[in-house]
Amino acid sequence: MDRFAAVERALRKAPPHALLDALRTTLRARYGAAGADLLMADYAMTILQPVEPPALPPEPLSAHLGALGRAFGSQQPYAENSGECTLVHVPVTVRGDRLGILTVRLPEGGYDEGTAGELADIGEVLGHEILVAERDTDLYQQARRARRLTLAAELQWQLLPGRSCSRPEYALGAQLEPAYAIRGDNFDWSGSAETLHLSVTNGMGEGIEAALLTNLAVNALRNARRAGLGLADQAALADQAIYGHHQGNVHLSTLLLRFELATGEAEVVDAGSPQLWRQRDGVTEQIELDAQLPLGMFEDTVYTAQRFRVLPGDRLFFFSDGVYEALSPAGEPYGKRALAAAMTGTRLLPTAQVPYAVLKELAAHRGSLAQDDDAMVLCMDWHGRQAPL
């Protein structure tokens, strides 16, 4: 563990923009590595891009195919022989949020089970350091961009908590499309020792106006949540903030949920169009909720929470209207039947991979039609809390 500790110390002391340089130096000294490269997953979660781009544009590296895709998908180190060295592809992941891949070139015979475990830990430490470094450098966010983001998309991605998260009690995965031009859709989560708060938002409008509306709503909801208010009061405060600013001219649909980690008991406020579906014991069905007014439509709207329960093994899906109302070239909406088929078809995938797979099915349904509305998919697997031994 001495060599792992040396790498960890080097990363913690490195300047924000020089994490990879510090890592390469220490891996060379402690592991005999001939080199290392860091690749970040792009915003669409389709390709992996180098933090240090080569002089000539490289061929796109798939996040789902080949050796890199195998490591990224399985979230386990994957080694392959390459001439006189061993290429080890290591997931760079923070609490389930998949950031990218670290590829380390080790000398022949320098890779074993112990080294695999240490490199996996290094990938996790590197992920933590990247998140801290992003407060002071744009380097890693620039590496995620296959092309320029719209300003609205810039606002939306900065607002998100991540794209996946895992704890012993649950796992979350979510994705927005079109990734580089997202407007009003959003998701948010926050966990504590005893609860998980989750929200799914669908702001009306186009471009920057939709993004600003969603930013106002999400920050109002966070402000109320962090003040310790209950779910219905969170909705009411956000409703007042939006109405106070826009006087009912625009509104925003949202689902607000609060889960008790120990019991699976949940509260929910349905204030608009996002849909909630559940897979349990092989059965996929929509959970019908008491529809209430979207946030910001009228002054002083009163919201009430209803209750349901999740069980270990349940998988929940959340969809914005850009998913279930998406049209085919023949004018047919995606609809409940296609949604149920997509959910069933992804039942064996890890949580974090499900949104990408569903959105890929949605793209096939749209065919040649341009995507004219945001599409948001969030998947949650509920494991429940294990009783202490």
Structure characterization notes:
With 389 residues, this protein is an alpha+beta fold. It is 34% helix and 28% strand. Strands 3-2-1-6-5-4 form a six-stranded antiparallel beta sheet, with helices on both faces. A six-stranded antiparallel beta sheet has the order 7-8-17-16-13-14. A five-stranded antiparallel beta sheet has the order 9-10-11-12-15. Helix 1 packs parallel to helix 4.
What key attributes describe this structure?
389 residues, alpha+beta
In the predicted model, the low-confidence regions spanning at least 5 consecutive residues are none
Q: First CA to last CA: what distance?
A: 29 Å
Helix segment tally: 11
- Work out the radius of gyration: 22 Å
Biggest β-sheet strands, sense, barrel: 6 strands, antiparallel
E-strand count: 17
Q: Estimate the helix proportion, in percent.
A: 25-40%
Overall shape: it is: globular
Q: What share of the residues does DSSP label as strand, in percent?
A: 25-35%
Structural class: alpha+beta
* Average pLDDT number: 92
- Could you state the order of secondary-structure elements as H and E? HHEEEHEEEHHHEEEEHHEEEEEEHHHE
Task: Name the strands of the widest sheet in spatial order.
Answer: 3-2-1-6-5-4
How is the secondary structure organized here?
Blueprint lengths: L1 H12 L5 H13 L3 E7 L5 E4 L10 E2 L3 H9 L3 E5 L2 E10 L2 E11 L5 H21 L5 H5 L7 H9 L4 E3 L3 E8 L7 E7 L3 E9 L3 H20 L4 H16 L5 E9 L4 E7 L3 E6 L2 E4 L19 E4 L5 E5 L1 H4 L10 H11 L8 H13 L8 E8 L7
Antiparallel strand pairs: 1-2, 1-6, 2-3, 4-5, 5-6, 7-8, 8-17, 9-10, 10-11, 11-12, 12-15, 13-14, 13-16, 16-17
